[in-house]
Specification:
Blueprint lengths: L2 E3 L3 H12 L11 H4 L29 E5 L17 E12 L9 E13 L5 E4 L3 E2 L10 E2 L6 H13 L4 H12 L5 H15 L2 H10 L3 E11 L2 E9 L4 E6 L3 H7 L6 E4 L11 E3 L1 H12 L4 H26 L6 H4 L1 H14 L5 H12 L1 H5 L12 H17 L5 H19 L4 H13 L10
Parallel strand pairs: 2-4, 8-11, 11-12
Antiparallel strand pairs: 1-5, 3-4, 4-5, 6-7, 8-9, 9-10
The site of zinc ion has 7 residues, from loops.
């Protein structure tokens, strides 16, 4: 919160305007007579007017705590100010959550009356404390980070947890808060809280991308994600220390951007966007599933090809597992050279097959040959992409329940919060403490703290 010069109609109007926003808490009785500036406030602005009835909030609570906000220095002469002589000019009520106190387990709603004070200076200037305001990533247009909020940072973290970890719809979050905590929040306030939380953690993207680039082994995968009727994809990049999500198209652009500068191993499916990356691994589980499907096909030739693929893959997989126990005397690729040559020849014979699945598997093996058999020289590397698939599974269920997102901003919020939640969890930290602090700091205009390591 920074000092604001008083006495200019424009600033006074801005303060009132912010107080009158539909989803924000309206000022509590803040002795408006004392707060009134000498001049008349600026001309009426379009939109909801100060004093108009908000829809966000009907309850008024008895506060647990009154929190005063004083200006620290005079905006006129820079002298430091003492609270003596301070007059409250505005304020609002916030509902926050206290939890995780080992001495007192449970959830406690904590109501705070915030009071903003004006202090006169010997120089004649009157300076006002103002609610903090954070800077929002331009990609999240329309979201505002501000301290003047009904929902405190701890309660905001709970709303994110209920929405994205426990996958409750906005309506179910509202029901939970009303029936278990006696708190009546509108759907709009819940929605705004989620968006603000996403904006709060947006600067973490840089740190997450860096962790991805620093990974020795990265798992990548993607699943469909509808955004207001457009078919987009939820992408995941996951290593032992980080999980990074994006909602984007299925083209090469995202992979190229994210992996610019990455030099580790990349495990992925056969999607073409990954194909240009040189140190690539392929998930064997998919190939084995496809080969097994063919081996059980009704078509005799397809069945034969299925076996021709399945048998060497299973033998090689056993060899890889054995090599992890103790290094083989010769490189696995050399040891199994004749089986690999036979498999390649079988694929080349079928790459123009009329049988669609035979053709597809033969082409896939030939296209990704090096990526598939890379691990024969590196048996310590994984054979499956389970890490990425498991990470996506949680969000696939959210997608089924929520039917995706409605706007690019909504998609970005989900991807940012999903990245922070999953990265904190895999690092052995609860995401909610971090999120609470992130929201509090960023609303105050402070930088985002680094993710827990
Ligand atoms: Zn002064």
């Amino acid at each position: 919160m920074g000092p604001v010069e008083s006495g200019t109609g424009e600033q006074f109007a801005a303060a009132e305007q912010s107080a009158g926003g539909a989803l924000e808490p309206k000022p509590t009785e803040a002795k408006p007579a004392e707060a009134k500036p000498a001049k008349t406030p600026a001309a009426r602005k379009p939109g909801k007017q100060p004093g108009a009835r908000g829809i966000g909030r009907t309850q008024v609570f008895q506060a647990h705590e009154e929190r005063p906000h004083y200006p620290a220095v005079c905006a006129g002469c820079g002298r430091s100010l003492e609270p003596a002589g301070a007059v409250a000019y505005t304020g609002f009520q916030a509902v926050d959550l206290r939890w995780d106190d080992p001495a007192r387990p449970g959830l406690t709603l904590w109501v705070v009356d915030h009071r903003y004070y004006e202090i006169p200076c010997a120089c004649g200037h009157r300076t006002r404390a103002a609610a903090g305001q954070g800077v929002v990533d331009p990609l999240l247009g329309g979201i505002e980070l501000r301290e003047w909020r009904l929902v405190g940072p701890g309660l905001a973290a709970l709303i994110v947890a209920l929405s994205y970890r426990f996958r409750l719809s906005r309506a179910r979050v509202r029901e939970f808060l009303a029936e278990w905590l006696g708190l009546d929040l509108s759907i709009g306030t819940i929605h705004q809280t989620l968006h603000e939380a996403g904006a709060a953690v947006a600067p973490a993207e840089e740190e997450l991308v860096q962790a991805v680039l620093d990974s020795a082994l990265l798992h990548a995968d993607e699943t469909s994600w509808p955004e207001h009727g457009h078919l987009l994809w939820l992408w995941v990049f996951r290593s032992v220390t980080v999980t990074l999500y994006y909602v984007a198209g299925r083209g090469k652009e995202l992979v190229t951007n994210v992996l610019d500068g990455f030099t580790g191993w990349l495990m992925s499916d056969g999607w073409g966007s990954y194909r240009d990356y040189p140190r690539r691994l392929r998930c064997w589980a998919h190939l084995i599933r496809k080969a097994r499907g063919l081996a059980q096909s009704g078509d005799r030739n397809a069945r034969a090809f299925g076996r021709l693929v399945l048998d060497p893959l299973e033998a090689l997989m056993a060899a890889v597992y054995a090599a992890r126990e103790g290094p083989p005397p010769v490189d696995l690729a050399t040891q199994h050279a004749s089986a690999l040559t036979a498999l390649r020849a079988a694929c080349e014979r079928r790459q123009h097959s009329d049988h669609a699945k035979t053709h597809a598997l033969a082409v896939e093996l030939l296209n990704d040959w090096d990526a598939i058999f890379q691990m024969l020289s590196h048996p310590e590397l994984p054979l499956t992409n389970n890490e990425a698939e498991r990470a996506l599974r949680h969000w696939v269920i959210l997608r089924k329940l929520s039917l995706g997102t409605r706007t690019p901003v909504g998609s970005r919020v989900v991807a940012l919060l999903a990245s922070v939640i999953d990265t904190c969890r895999q690092r052995g930290h609860t995401p909610w403490r971090y999120l609470e602090r992130a929201i509090a700091d960023r609303r105050a205009g402070l930088p985002l703290a680094a993710l827990p390591q």
